Amino acid sequence: MEILKERTKSICPQCYQELDAKVVEVNNEVFLEKECSEHGRFKILIEKDVEFYKRIMNKEFKKERVPFLKLALPITRQCNLNCQVCYSPDRRNKDFSLEELTKVIRDFKCSLIKLTGGEPTLNKDLPFLIKTVHESGKVSGLVTNGINLTDINYVKVLKEAGLNRIAVTFNGFSDDIHEKINGQKLLKQKLRALKTLKKAGMEVVLSVTLVRGINENELGKLYRYYLDNQSFIKLLRIRSQSQVGRYVETNSFCLSEIIGLISKASGFSKEELVEPLFQYPHFCPSTCRFDLDMFESFIYRINKRGIPNKRFRKIRFILESLSLFGARKTLKMVINKIKGKRKLLDAVITIRVWPDKQRIDLGEMQWCFTALLTQDRDFLPFCYAIIMEEKSCV
User: Fold this and answer.
1) What angle do CA 236, 238, 243 make, to 5 degrees?
2) What domains appear along the chain, each with residue ranges and CATH number?
3) Are the CB atoms for 143 and 172 separated by under 8 Å?
4) DSSP letter string over 13-43?
5) What percent of the chain has pLDDT over 90?
6) Where does the pLDDT of residue 152 fall: very low under 50, low under 70, confident under 90, or very high at 90 and above?
7) Per-residue pLDDT tens for 183-205?
8) Cα(199)–Cα(91) distance, rounded to whole angstroms?
9) 85, 101, 343 from 95: Cα distances, Å
10) How much is the mean pLDDT over the chain?
């Protein structure tokens, strides 16, 4: 056994008391160990690839958190679905008042505000709130199930209010999958909403929740759908189900597992997917998030395997002759023309693995850039906040 982190913090999964914890390696897997004086010892698997974990963990326990760059703002607790997977299923809490929401939007220091729920389109003041975000000089995002976005006139109202981007949950291409995860057959409505957003000229994030045994085999189809619709889908966001709120009784995916699934779906090796980010000079390690740039993966493959023919040897000349920005831009144009790779080169995939009360490492939460406004009017790191919200419902 190797100790990877001698000292960090976690919580008891039964009483939510803050505990001392450590991270250890056992048989090439990574475990979080902690002990509660009342509920005993816990040893929780948090990552299956120890070498990968060593490269993404933050070794030192940081007393002061990094400044928040984003805010997730729940503008209603109500929802028009009853999903089997939902990190915030409690509908009993009272919504924040319009005055409270407006004040938070104007006063909270960040660059991006994501309006969430429940289902945010159920709040009749949504256009006003979007406009307030816009007038505050911040970027606005909407996180939605998409059910109410089949009406193009409504979508245009949101766009005219200043909405920058919409994240739409879309978990697969069969009603069976939607029924198991979202509780209803929703495929036609989801596709109609995406078609409406495309027609309205909205930028979209395709947001996928992976649930083991239900939709991980859909990732290839989802990846190809994203590539074929990059005119309006600007990002593919993949996260594992977290055992917070309401969830399916199955093990969550760890970060390296999802990268493996994307490798299978995209045709890039795991090395080609992850190494470009590790080489990025401003890379900020995180055990719960990882961003993949397919353009960088393609460049890494070329450099690793060599230049395969005369046409690609011209690319190396461009790379060596031009400035970094010029090379990247020109290289894209060249490869787009000679290999038809435009879809691939513009692809960006974000991966999120939200920790739950079993697996949370509070030391890692100090590096979280996204705040969530809780029912107690606190601004906490997102994943820690949804766990504390769960505690208040127990």
Assistant:
1) 160
2) 2-61+358-393 (no CATH), 70-252 (3.20.20.70)
3) no
4) TTT--EEEEEEEEETTEEEEEEEETTTEEEE
5) 77
6) very high
7) 999 999 999 999 999 999 999 99
8) 33
9) 21, 10, 42
10) 91
Name the pTM for this structure. Answer: 0.90
Which residues make beta-bridge pairs with 113?
Answer: 71, 140
**In the block, residue with structure tokens 């509780």:** 183
Q: Rounded to an integer, what distance in angstroms lies between the CA atom of residue 370 and that of residue 290?
A: 14
One-letter amino acid of 279:
Q
CA-to-CA distance for 131 and 50, rounded, in angstroms?
Answer: 46
State pLDDT tens for residues 87-106: 988 888 899 999 999 999 99
What is the 8-class DSSP label of residue 319? H
pLDDT at 307: 55
Query: Concatenated DSSP letters for 222-236?
Result: HHHHHHHTTTTEEEE
Question: How many CA atoms lie less than 13 Å away from 254 in the CB half-sphere?
Answer: 17
- Number of C-beta neighbours around residue 18 at 10 A: 12
Distance in angstroms (rounded) separating the CA atoms of residues 192 and 190: 5
Longest dimension (CA), the chain: 69
Bridge partners (DSSP) of residue 34 are 21, 42
User: Rounded distance, CA 72 to CA 94, Å?
Assistant: 17
| Burial zone of 279 (CB within 10 Å; 0-12 exposed, 13-18 middle, 19+ buried) | exposed
What does the pLDDT read at residue 326?
57
CA atoms within 13 A on the CB side of 326: 8
Q: What span, in angstroms and rounded, lies between the C-alpha atoms of 32 and 25?
A: 9
Which of 252-261, 337-346, 382-391 reaches the highest mean pLDDT?
252-261
User: Where do the H-state alpha helices sit in the chain?
Assistant: 50-56, 98-107, 126-135, 152-161, 175-182, 187-200, 219-228, 255-266, 270-278, 294-305, 310-321, 324-339, 342-345, 362-365, 382-393
Structure tokens, 224: 């190809």
Backbone CA torsion sign across 181, 182, 185, 186: negative
